[in-house]
């Protein structure tokens, strides 16, 4: 059972998400909060696996709240909700450790599947959206980020670098397994080692690091 916490300052949005998620047998909505400031306390109390959080809220926005949540132990996975496909707020949340984002008009079944994927350690950004976002990441400070990223990636084995590069293309674990002729379990093990070795929170940040090294 995937435990989900809803964070949004719009009660109607929270109600709609609760209805959608409650229709899935393997997903349980364990609580709600109406601003980012309440998110940390709610996570400590409810212990969700996944937090669905609005990116723009009055008292504490989704970026600051994501940063705070990812510092918790254990830390939940975070999906940010946005009105737009990719803007500076989404980019900030991904850098803070969010596992991906959903636009608020995402179809109900896709929302449920996104929660399942993130709970399983996947990212929820399509290859096309990945390209758009990474283009935004390259807009400023590219040289300093490139040098820092290259140093970090130099510590990887050839196989680990292949997995990281495949992740950066937007490939799922199953797709990486097919591309690199390995089992999905082996891919998951590589991803876990990459996160530890690179001191990152999720596969989205792996993609960002690989992109930074190539800009």
Automatic annotation (TrEMBL):
<feature type="modified residue" description="4-aspartylphosphate">
    <location>
        <position position="54"/>
    </location>
</feature>
<dbReference type="InterPro" id="IPR058245">
    <property type="entry name" value="NreC/VraR/RcsB-like_REC"/>
</dbReference>
<protein>
    <submittedName>
        <fullName>Two component transcriptional regulator, LuxR family</fullName>
    </submittedName>
</protein>
<dbReference type="InterPro" id="IPR000792">
    <property type="entry name" value="Tscrpt_reg_LuxR_C"/>
</dbReference>
<dbReference type="Pfam" id="PF00196">
    <property type="entry name" value="GerE"/>
</dbReference>
<feature type="domain" description="HTH luxR-type">
    <location>
        <begin position="149"/>
        <end position="214"/>
    </location>
</feature>
<keyword id="KW-0804">Transcription</keyword>
<dbReference type="InterPro" id="IPR039420">
    <property type="entry name" value="WalR-like"/>
</dbReference>
<dbReference type="Pfam" id="PF00072">
    <property type="entry name" value="Response_reg"/>
</dbReference>
<dbReference type="GO" id="GO:0006355">
    <property type="term" value="P:regulation of DNA-templated transcription"/>
</dbReference>
<keyword id="KW-0805">Transcription regulation</keyword>
<keyword id="KW-0597">Phosphoprotein</keyword>
<dbReference type="GO" id="GO:0003677">
    <property type="term" value="F:DNA binding"/>
</dbReference>
<keyword id="KW-0238">DNA-binding</keyword>
<dbReference type="GO" id="GO:0000160">
    <property type="term" value="P:phosphorelay signal transduction system"/>
</dbReference>
<feature type="domain" description="Response regulatory">
    <location>
        <begin position="3"/>
        <end position="119"/>
    </location>
</feature>
<dbReference type="InterPro" id="IPR001789">
    <property type="entry name" value="Sig_transdc_resp-reg_receiver"/>
</dbReference>
<dbReference type="InterPro" id="IPR016032">
    <property type="entry name" value="Sig_transdc_resp-reg_C-effctor"/>
</dbReference>
<dbReference type="InterPro" id="IPR011006">
    <property type="entry name" value="CheY-like_superfamily"/>
</dbReference>
């Amino acid at each position: 059972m995937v435990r989900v916490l809803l964070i949004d300052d719009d009660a109607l949005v929270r109600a709609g998400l609760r209805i959608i998620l409650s229709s899935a047998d393997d997903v349980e909505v364990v609580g709600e909060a109406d601003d980012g400031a309440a998110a940390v306390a709610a996570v400590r109390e409810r212990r969700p696996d996944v937090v669905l959080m609005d990116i723009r809220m009055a008292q504490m926005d989704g970026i600051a709240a994501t940063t705070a949540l990812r510092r918790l132990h254990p830390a939940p996975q975070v999906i940010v909700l946005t009105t737009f496909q990719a803007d500076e707020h989404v980019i900030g949340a991904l850098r803070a450790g969010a596992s991906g984002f959903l636009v608020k008009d995402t179809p109900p079944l896709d929302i449920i599947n996104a929660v399942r994927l993130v709970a399983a350690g996947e990212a929820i950004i399509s290859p096309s959206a990945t390209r758009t976002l990474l283009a935004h990441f390259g807009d400023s400070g590219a040289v300093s980020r490139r040098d820092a990223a290259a140093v970090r990636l130099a510590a990887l084995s050839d196989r680990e670098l292949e997995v990281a590069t495949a992740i950066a293309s937007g490939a799922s674990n199953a797709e990486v397994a097919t591309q690199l002729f390995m089992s999905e379990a082996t891919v998951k093990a590589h991803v876990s080692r990459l996160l530890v070795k690179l001191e990152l929170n999720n596969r989205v940040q792996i993609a960002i690091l690989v992109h930074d090294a190539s800009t």
